[in-house]
Specification:
The complex is a heterodimer of chains A (623) and B (582).
Chain A lengths: L16 E2 L1 H6 L2 H6 L15 H9 L2 H14 L3 H15 L5 H18 L2 E4 L1 H13 L2 E5 L5 H12 L6 E5 L6 H9 L2 E4 L7 H16 L5 E2 L18 H11 L7 E9 L5 H8 L9 H6 L10 E6 L3 E2 H5 L21 H20 L5 H19 L7 H17 L12 H11 L1 H9 L4 H17 L1 H16 L5 H14 L11 H14 L3 E3 L4 E3 L3 H29 L6 H19 L8 H13 L9
Parallel strand pairs in A: 2-8, 3-6, 3-7, 4-5, 4-6
Antiparallel strand pairs in A: 1-2, 7-8, 7-9, 10-11
Helix pairs in contact in A: 3-10, 4-10, 5-10, 6-8, 10-11, 12-20, 16-17, 16-20, 17-18, 19-20, 21-22, 21-23, 21-24, 24-25, 24-26
Chain B lengths: L26 E3 L5 E3 L10 E2 L2 H9 L25 H10 L3 E2 L2 H6 L6 H8 L9 E3 L4 H14 L2 E5 L19 E5 L6 E5 L4 E5 L4 H10 L2 E2 L12 H7 L6 H4 L2 H4 E8 L2 E3 L15 H4 L8 E8 L1 E2 L3 E9 L2 H13 L6 E5 L1 H9 L7 H17 L8 E9 L1 H17 L3 E2 L2 H22 L3 E11 L3 H18 L7 E9 L3 E11 L6 H18 L18 H20 L12
Parallel strand pairs in B: 5-7, 6-7
Antiparallel strand pairs in B: 1-2, 2-3, 4-5, 8-9, 9-13, 10-14, 11-12, 11-13, 15-17, 15-18, 16-17, 16-20, 19-21, 20-21
Helix pairs in contact in B: 2-5, 11-14, 16-17
The chains are: A alpha/beta (623), B alpha+beta (582).
Organism (chain B): Sander lucioperca
Protein name (chain B): Alkylglycerone-phosphate synthase
Cofactor (chain B): FAD
Amino acid sequence: CGSLSKDPMLKKRDDFEDILEERRNSSDLKYALRCYTPVLYKGVTPCTSSMLKSMVLQSDQLHYVINQVSKETGKATDDIKEEASAILEEMAQCLQLSTVRFFAFTLSKAFKTLFRSICVNEDGIQRLQQAIQEHPVVLLPSHRSYMDFLLMSYILYTYDVALPVIAAGMDFMGMKFVGEMLRMSGAFFIRRSFGGDKLYWALFSEYVKTMLKNGFAPVEFFLEGTRSRTSKSLTPKLGLLNIVMDPFLKGEVFDVNVVPVSISYERVLEETLYARELLGIPKPKESTSGLFKARKILSEDYGSIHVYFGQPVSVRSLAQGKVNRCQFNLVPRHIPRRPSEDIASFVNDSAYRLVRAQEENMVLKPWVLVASLLLQYHHQNQAAGQKRGIALGELTAQAVWLRDLSRQYGAFLHWPDHIPPSEVVSSSLTLHRGLYVYTLKQHKELLSQAVILLSCASYRNQALHVFVRPALLALAIHTASSNQKQEVFNSFSFLRNMFSNEFILCPGATVQDFEEACYLLVKTGALQFTQQEVLVTERGHRTLAFLSTMLDPFLQGYQVKETLCNGCVMFCVQKGGCVHNSIQRSREHLRIGLKYMEVLSSDLQKNSLAALLRLGAVRKMKG
Amino acid sequence: MPKYTKPPSHLQEILKWNGWGYSDTRFLFNKKGQAEFTGKRYRLSGMIIPALQNWFEGTFGASVQHKSPAMPILTSSAVQPPTLNEAFVDELKSTGIPCSHDAEDRVFRGHGHCLHEVFALREGKVGRVPDIVVWPNCHNDVVKIVELACKHNVCLIPYGGGTSVSSALECPPEETRCIVSLDTSQMNRILWIDEKNLTAHVEAGIVGQELERLLNESGYCTGHEPDSMEFSSLGGWVATRASGMKKNIYGNIEDLVVHVKMVTPQGVIEKGCQCPRMSTGPDIHHFIMGSEGTLGVVTEVTMKIRPMPEYQKYGSVVFPNFEQGVACLREVAKQRCAPASIRLMDNEQFKFGHALKPQVSSIFTSFLDGLKKFYITKFKGFDPDRLCVATLLFEGDREKVLQHEKQVYDIAAKFGGLAAGEDNGQRGYMLTFVIAYLRDLGMDYYVIGESFETSVPWDRVLDICRNVKARIIQECKDKGVQFSPLSTCRVTQTYDAGACVYFYFAFNYRGLSDPVHVYEQVEHAAREEILANGGSLSHHHGVGKLRKEWMRETISDVGMGMLKSVKNYVDPKNIFGNRNLI
């Protein structure tokens, strides 16, 4: 990672402009029909989507794989070609300006009802414009909502930037009409899994590369692979990143610009849906009728959205000194090969860096801090067996303390400083009334209580990337057997390793993370270092308590998992089955007295199981 | 100090001491700001080149008002006094072989034509140079000199035409022994011509144009024409694995050489016959060719010769873009019908060539030019900022040439190529002979530059051209160059399995405190880019000391070991101590 400036307080960020403001003051129809003339990549030759398809089908790569498959299966090459052509038909986008205009119109209407504002950093757009002219561009937005990619295209249309082609999951194709609409607005569809299917992989990677290399359009996909249901960034998926970096590594383009985009929702449309899903209530299948049923959300207030287009990252500069590109010199480049070890680890490192770049520019609303405080307060109360609320004054005071702390840690906090803090806190409470009212009411019904707590947790999670490193250190100090620096580091390193499926912690960056955490805690006066020891200062106790409490639910989740696994090894038929079993088990445990509802989250369970598997604490068995 | 004798023929007297080529020949901007090419030696000599100033100022952001003149003469005090091995000098004198330790003679042989070498000379800066220059007259003289060098442990650096662009002639600064420059220029005779076998036995000090001139007198030629052939020597070609413009007909140096004689510290190495091909283990010629003066001195070479061609014709083809041009060259190579020379210049180089058009004398010619331009850009719709041009040279029987020409133009047409006349073609080739003079002009106005080359498989030609050019531009920007550089290339040779690509790169260095260092960093980066894109370390310039650092990855550890063990056997005391290559 190591992209951090020494002092996070000094991070420069651009200002935002609300793009809905103009929409509220002028005709949407005119806007949808206006002249759209984006600037394109310098070398681009105009090319239709059908030309793209034939370029893919005629590529050396595909010829090679078709012959290979034919040899392996005994099928005639013509049959395989036909198959390939059909797959490509199912996959390919067919971007049409008329559809884009349709969306521009309808989304304007919808956005205005749903959101107070959609704020975009215009400097970022300028940088993107520049980047698109120079090199092929890959857009990497964070993924929290179905809204994300429509929103992206909407913004790019608004600013006259080239519209992207977007990698979308095949599940959208289930929605008949909508699927085709999305295709015409630039989406192309990939099957969720195609493990050993050489032909599919070749088609897919060649299709993406062809679009990228020719500068046909910016390629957009989600590094996290799927929507994060917890508002925590997901560990990156590497398949597509591998594909878009390949043309650079093989010298087919001079460089590729990767642009991380951070989309922060004040309230995600899928808020409660996610919590239910995390609790094991299966997600409804994407269907057009489902979409219409969801329209009732139109009557609610979802606050504002902030979209931050980050600094374009040059793949060339990322790879500088990390990858020896000469490794492609000895075999023709169209022959598919497994990425070598250095490339695999380069892509992995880059992916983490990019997710962190997304995280860094996520806008945090005051509510995120309030939710974090309320959750901790709730759990303390619960432990003490009390059932009372918190005075607004006290909450405000704590929120102000946390505001200052998070700013010192470099959070991109949108706290309106011109408004008195008590008003800031109460107005954010109003927007999320649905959540905190129940939180305080202590609902009797276990499941709906869990839904609310998990929703709250998802807001707290938005701030996790700011606190996670110092929090791990706080926890390490707490659990280490002594104050010795080395002991603390060992304990930090153990915890970090354990949680590496849970949080975005760059592989191999333990020392950097430790130093960063130390730096922040020392800077804010919470810690002191002597020659050998780590000392918590007088005023540091409050900070450290807050930080380690923040990770408490996760810690308990992992502990529970461990105990459970000890009991249920026999049930581990397969991963899915195990998770299901554990949910059952957890529910039982809950009756015994579990402090944190979050332990019920399937995400936490999945991550903890993966971690335990990785650490060799449990083993997968077949049979 | 005793007086030494200098040899009678001394090319040095008519050449520049701090730049390229003949003293009487140079580009300059006259009082009207127009470019002029002085002297009488070239087709372009004595002509006004009206478009050059505009191109020069526009391309580099330079101005003819801002001069950066060179030091006019060498001050002897800038040259360190020679370290002489008295015993060696005494014995050498007793042999009667001419030698000198004049500062001018020593400085002249202490450099090649890399940018940093010429730049330093223009500033009057001189580093370590040879301590003494000797001019052997024949093979036996060389044998004597090498024996004496071994006996007295002095360092020998062979010197041919001095056109090296790989720092091969630079004296290693760490060398403490007396350094002797062994100048082969007096060994410039054709010893015999064998018309039955079509071979000529030639002394290795002969320079290219002299060799061709003498052979032409008997109706023959070697056909070996590297761009440097006016000054480079046969021995130098062998020592660097040179390549000639017309290699498609005549072959590269390794195809032309039948027999080589080289004097090494262990004695003379040569084959016992003049056979066209042998199966006798690894070819010992391949230890000699490309040895870059690290093993010995090449003294005599038997080369293939050919009857002079009956007919020569230039030609050119305009393509809508570089991609189409490369595709056409690839097809020509595939069909193995490449003319004597076929080169594809990119758009920038095409414009460069265009800027060198001399003033036209008749209105008719300029009208025709206008018409051609109109036809290509307006009627055919070629984008003047993308089109590129291939230059062609056909050679042979008149009838066959015409047939061949048609075949090539037919292929070109399939790739959208339009025949664009002989004149464009001829001017393209002229560019290669005057480019080095142009560099001197640039250096008079704060512009420095260089060319470098590589070879690359066909499937990577486009990628390497694009990426290396882009890398140069990016590095210049990153290194603080204030003006955008000239970064251009041409595909200059075709082979069955790939092509040779030549890059020109130059920039305006106003505002830089250490322009040469910046230049070297950019060139270094460009070479890394070439290697990362599957290009070779060198196609024909050689390695010298400039590209030594990449030898190991180029030929593997074992390869290095093999070369080193040969060096250790042949020259255990490192008498040939120029430290090139390994």
